[in-house]
Design brief:
Chains A, B: This is DUF1993 domain-containing protein. The structure is a homodimer. Helix content of chain A is about 55%, strand content about 5%. By secondary structure, chain A is mostly helical. At the A-B interface, helix 1, helix 4 and helix 5 of A face helix 1, helix 4 and helix 5 of B.
């Protein structure tokens, strides 16, 4: 399998820059540090901070499982944008610790995951392209949309990372 | 390269089911057919109908270019949810017309695209994983978020397509 680390790393860097822009917005509008992390598109969707941590966790889970490694557990304790940037950096540090050759043959690995009450089994290829990547971009896009819908000055090129 | 058609086809089917749910909502609330297609998350983002057609176009463009085919041009004339479902179906029909072996070696193909004022050149692999797939999920997620933020009864499992 193509090493999945570079694409996740690229988009995590883009996510980190979205956090920078959110922080600049919070400063300009004199918002308390917890305001943007708690924004939601609608009451029964997860808040911004959870969209960010879940995106990070799909990148971490995908790279660990496809490389045959234990998935490291990061506690969900972030309350500020600075905390979230740290979570992204910690995720990127884990990804960069995985040797590229760990993904050789990963497309054929059997991957089991628990997603809430559901237990899912995939081939490595199906897990990556049909589950981890769609989920990663779902949560990254929702984080972006929360900022965008609340007037933070972000655009599509920020999402794409240049 | 792994044939990209099955994953795009799966998520286009999920998108079509989101359109079914949007239509059921429009009927229940007695909305005119053009109301949901014109919803936006915020005034300076594209409306729902464009999010759907752009998602379709990334799937169409990716599969055509990676297979070395001319990208078929579909006019953006949709005004109703039924029109959008037709656009998804037309996109899926094109994807299913491409023989699986057309993608052999596609990771190394050179892909040129114009994105607004920008001209971009990629390898096939980078185009698919770093551009077409992220864009496809960006627009599909934004379409989903527009429905979700407007009270349509859709959930994450609908996005994932089961």
């Amino acid at each position: 399998m193509q090493n999945p680390v570079p694409v996740f790393t690229h988009f995590l860097t883009a996510l980190s820059r979205l956090l920078d822009k959110a922080e600049a917005h919070a400063e300009a509008k004199r918002l308390k540090p917890e305001v943007i992390p708690n924004l939601r598109l609608i009451a029964d969707m997860l808040p911004f901070w959870r969209q960010v941590t879940i995106a990070c966790d799909h990148a971490k889970g995908a790279c660990a499982r496809l490389a045959g490694l234990e998935v490291p557990s990061f506690a969900d304790t972030e309350t500020t944008l600075a905390d979230l940037r740290e979570r992204v950096a910690k995720t990127q540090a884990f990804l960069s610790s995985i040797p590229a050759d760990a993904f050789t043959g990963a497309e054929a690995r059997t991957i089991h995951i628990k997603a809430g009450p559901r237990e899912l089994t995939f081939t490595g290829d199906h897990y990556q392209n049909g589950y981890a990547v769609p989920n990663f971009f779902f949560h990254m896009t929702t984080a972006y949309n929360i900022l965008r819908a609340n007037g933070v000055d972000v655009g599509k090129v920020d999402f794409l990372g240049g």
